[in-house]
Write a structure and sequence with these properties.
CATH topology of the largest domain: Rossmann fold
Number of strands: 6
Helix content: 40-55%
Structural class: alpha/beta
Order of helices and strands: EHEHEHEEHEHHHHHHHHH
Largest sheet: 6 strands, parallel
Distance between the termini: 38 Å
Bound molecules: zinc ion
CATH class of the largest domain: Alpha Beta
Strand order of the largest sheet: 1-6-5-2-4-3
Amino acid sequence: MKKSSAVKENLFLSVEQTRKKEAYVRAYLRRHPDESGIIFCATRRIAETLCKKLSGEGFPVLSCVEGMPELRRMRALEAFTSGPGRIMIAAGAFRMEKEKTDIRFVIHYNLPPSPEDYCREAGYAGLDSERAECILLFSRQDIAARRMQLKNLKNNGEYTEKEWESLRREDEERLQEMIAYCTREDCLRVFLQRYFGEKPEENCGNCSFCCGAVMQDGWEKEGLLSEGERGKSGPKVRPADTLEEEERILFEQLRILRREIASEKKVPPYIVFSDRTLADMCRKFPRTEAELLEVNGVGEYKLEQYGEQFLKVLHGSDAAQP
Ligand SMILES: [Zn+2]
């Protein structure tokens, strides 16, 4: 089974349940000036409308859609790959002849038809192994639109009736998996890894589920959630809310350490450990590195990077020597 490119560790995976997609994209682009990114849309019409709007507002957007004249397509790709800070809005079979390694984000404006498609497109992000974000904007309306697209596919006599039926059934199954990716409350990377036949042993700590509370905070601050969406996406209970008073004090100390490490490494705090992981750390109160590995979201890599520092905060000078 081939390894899915979207599960590379440097890619932050996120599903945002929102119907205010345009507002989301606008706010995102403002927060990420001078970064290169691709926005994938389900249809040419959606892509062109979005491109027109954003370019009218002064965003450095380009478009590359199915059916456009080859020369224009080549020019758009040339402009996109020639430097940083440009945003490509794509629809249909998008391909890049020249590799661009500094793509910092891939946003899916609509639901992709399958995990295979999603991973291939999201895989354009972060080829330089630096941190990049893969965000899927999900609304229920997209499901009906995708089904309609599948329904409209025509068999040009290339397949027998039976073959055609079975192909369409497979399409529907892949779409179901994609919907599951967007709606299950579980680690996104683990979901994709399992889909592609891998056997992940722990949650990734670098997706919108693992970092749920942090993301929710961000959206609420930016007013991007509608009334109905507040509290619906992301975990319903904040990790810290499930802690006892004593554990909560410890939790705050761990957050301080996390903030220090994050600012030293110049990464967002949740890349170090998610709130969920810190909460679990307070509950399990590990004494040794082996016990620390039992904590949700702590793998070998993070243990090696941060284990010692966190054990010190947990147990002061009593921390067990490795
Ligand atoms: Zn995860």
